[in-house]
Amino acid sequence: MADKKVVISADSTCDLNEELKKQYNVQYYPFYINLRDKDYKDGVDITLEEMFNAYYEDKSLPKTAASSIGEFTEHFKQFTDKGCEVVHISLGHALSSAFANASMAAEQIDGVYVVDSCNLSNGSGQLVIRAARMAEEGKSAKEIVDELEKIKPHVHTSFVLDTLDFMAAGGRCPAIAAKAAGMLKCKPYLSVDNSDGSLHIGKMYRGKQEMVLRKYIEDELGKYDNLVLDDIFLCNSTGFEDSYIDELKDLILKIAPFKRVHKTLSNGTISSHCGPRCLGILFVTDWN
């Protein structure tokens, strides 16, 4: 049992919705977005629609940045100065300097534990809500971290993109590949390597996005016979009707009886590379 209160902290890239953030009392520190030479706090004072519109208007792309060592230090100390311990879940190290910066800040402060989620978006979010539940149960920071390290390799994160244009514009895939995918109406499948958080393009689906996403969900959930049926995230980057997202939620529950299907939006840091009408499911398989 914990001798001190444990605070759960996370990068804003874990993409919890406001309901979950409040329910689990998760302490965020936002990433930064620079668009057209103006700085914004991701998820605070810029919307996905504003970001995407800038690209379509004049090909402006946002630049994203993690919090600095000093900012993480200030963030952690507001809790440790009150006698709390902190477990901070970071965006995967392959994608950002966030883990390195948070770790260097933690080295200067007793009672701060930084976990490399080796994931992104609600893949990290899966670890965040589980850490929060363990804290509510009275587990110590060290006990929570040890359990998260066991869970990490069993978090499954994938998305299907509607377009490769944004990845090409950001230099993450060849422009010719993006053009060919568009001409052939291909919808790329992206998965996260849960050993470091890196993204990999896999198979290509063909057809309209709404039909493709149904097939993707059936394929993805059908891969595993050891699903942990507590929480699954259904995350998108805008561009869908609410009724369609509800249809996909119903499809998930038809395939597997999850207790909770969390509908979320990806933040600007992640969506800036994926573009609009990207959608994914993020879940956990048994780690025991």
Notable characteristics:
four-stranded parallel beta sheet, 13 strands, 11 helices, alpha/beta, 288 residues, 24% strand, single chain
Structure description:
- The chain is of the alpha/beta class and 288 residues long.
- It is built from eleven helices and 13 strands.
- α10 (242-255) links the parallel β11 and β12 (260-265).
- The protein is globular, with a radius of gyration of 19 Å.
- The two termini are 21 Å apart.
Uncertain segments are 173-180
Count of runs of 4 or more consecutive helical residues: 11
Helix content, binned percent: 25-40%
CA radius of gyration is 19 Å
Large-scale geometry = globular
N/C terminus separation: 21 Å
In terms of structural class, how would the helical and strand content be classed? alpha/beta
Q: Summarize this, please?
A:
The chain is an alpha/beta fold and 288 residues long. The chain has eleven helices and 13 strands.
Question: Any chance you could write out the topology, listing elements then pairs?
Answer:
Blueprint (H helix, E strand, L loop, with lengths): L5 E6 L6 H6 L3 E3 L2 E4 L2 E4 L6 H11 L4 E3 L3 H12 L4 E6 L7 H9 L5 E5 L4 H16 L4 H11 L3 E6 L4 H5 L5 H9 L2 E7 L6 E8 L2 H13 L9 E6 L5 H14 L4 E6 L2 H7 L4 E6 L4
Parallel strand pairs: 1-2, 1-6, 6-7, 11-12
Antiparallel strand pairs: 3-4, 3-5, 8-9, 8-13, 9-10, 11-13
